[in-house]
Amino acid sequence: MMPSLLVARALAADPAYLLLPGVWYEAPPADPGLVKVGRDHLEFTGFAAVRLPGSVPAADGLRITATIDPVVGDVRSESWVSLMLTSATPSLGWVTESTTMFGLLVRSNGQVDIFSNGVECPPVWAGAPPARAGAVGLVLRSVDGRVHVDGAVEGSTFSALLPVGTELPLQVFVQVGAHYHEAPSPSTVDGLRVDPLR
Questions:
Q1: Is pLDDT at 85 greater than 70 in this prediction?
Q2: CATH number, domain at 130?
Q3: Strands (E), 15-170
Q4: pTM given for the model
Q5: Structural domain of residue 150, as residue ranges?
């Protein structure tokens, strides 16, 4: 069994994991018992979000990879995990928050939604969309004044454009949240990496 967030701080390379409400309204940080943190592993058992330690240089673009399972053992649920980038602090840790520069929402059934500062940015699939969540890869970069997103979920590829005027900030904080209903199966994120493009 993974230790709780508070205990796991001693296991993390940086002890500064920050609990966020993980909801769309003003609320206190989520109960620490809803989030378990280990090396390369996040696990949620309720509405919650966390901000990962430190910030990442983003001005030249970002590469994001992770394996996401919004409900372990289920491929039909609409429960989701969200990956969020923001330069704002404080934050609710909610994917459609107006201060979330980029938000990716992945449901168990493979549905993908993208948001930027509260505005939906529909993904355009190169072929059939995925039938389930799983391996996720993203590249964000600025091209001709627009932030382009190229991504894949379980091998299905897509592209999206963030709204005109959206810019990649110098630094971003990385946040992960879960919108979770299917107790007792947890939501998990494994192997999350967010790297600046060189």
A1: yes
A2: 2.60.120.200
A3: 18-20, 35-38, 41-44, 48-51, 56-57, 62-69, 80-86, 102-107, 112-116, 119-120, 124-125, 135-143, 146-153, 156-161
A4: 0.88
A5: 5-196
